[in-house]
Amino acid sequence: MRVVDLTQPLSPATTPWPGDDALAVVELAAVERDGFYARRLDLHEHTGTHFDAPAHFVAGGATVDEIAAGRLVAAVRIVDVSGQASEDPDYAVTADDIRAMERKHGELVPGEVLLALTGWDMHLDDPARYVGNLRFPGFGADAADLAVERELVGIGIDTLSVDRGCDEEYPVHHRTLPAGLWHLEGLVGLDLIPAVGAMLVVGVPLVVGASGFPARVLALVP
């Protein structure tokens, strides 16, 4: 089994959502001075590669600590729209894109995770391009409806949001989170895993009351 890390490094250099503060780090102790090393971190819950719980957009929705562990390990599918996204930064993954993937690899199964490969992680070292004045690809509303219809456990993407940057009303968040799905945003390396056959492990800390949190996301490829 090959383990593929789909997580971007988390540091003060990590590009935040516009208007959010970047991760701030305060060194509390150093080995040379104190005999041990420790820091305090100040970060937004939705920084870097991170997990969205339903509570992020749903009053009374499940918070991170209320997501059952069994829903964080699942078979993963990839819908590859990197070609379309390379030509259109506002590209929306459509239900037809997903159905085209299903024709090749079989229909999505309840409990699976669907990740959209846009190739946008290639811009991580260029924050102006990565954020792009909120010009980046995402899922479309009809794709979100299909994800709910297929009873997926979650969806994810290699951009700042499962919604396109230009979709100011967040239609995908408003469709999937109320249905109990979770999101992964800010993923990297989706081109390193197959369209079907891998397992996804979402290592999100059990933070009580959190609307989301940075996560270590691993794909297990046979």
Describe this structure in words.
The chain is globular. It contains six helices and 13 strands. With 222 residues, the protein is α/β, with parallel strands linked by helices. α3 crosses α5. The mean pLDDT is 98. The protein has one domain: Glucose Oxidase, domain 1. The strands form three sheets. The protein has a nine-stranded mixed β-sheet with strand order 1-13-11-5-7-9-10-4-12. Helices cover 18% and strands 26% of the residues.
List descriptors.
single chain; about 220 residues; Glucose Oxidase, domain 1; globular
What is shown here, in short?
With 222 residues, the chain is an alpha/beta fold. It is built from 6 helices and 13 strands. It has a single domain, classed as Glucose Oxidase, domain 1 (3-Layer(bba) Sandwich), CATH 3.50.30.
